[in-house]
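User: Design a sequence. Structure:
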């Protein structure tokens, strides 16, 4: 699954913020973004998210 965006909604660390400009958050990396966090990680590092943990 290398270099593929991950579905953040199924991740333990994903959360929805109250910030309209940055509605998607990642607790693992500690940031908010307009796009899904996995897309931001892929664009900035060139690799898929390494902290993805599926929800139980």
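Assistant: Done.
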């Amino acid at each position: 699954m290398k270099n593929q965006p991950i579905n953040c909604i199924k991740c333990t660390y994903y959360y929805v913020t109250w910030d309209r400009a940055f509605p998607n958050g990642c607790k693992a990396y500690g940031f908010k973004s307009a796009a899904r966090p996995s897309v931001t990680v892929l664009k900035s590092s060139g690799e898929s998210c390494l902290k993805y943990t599926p929800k139980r």
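The first strand starts at residue 14 and ends at 16. Residues 8-45 form one domain.
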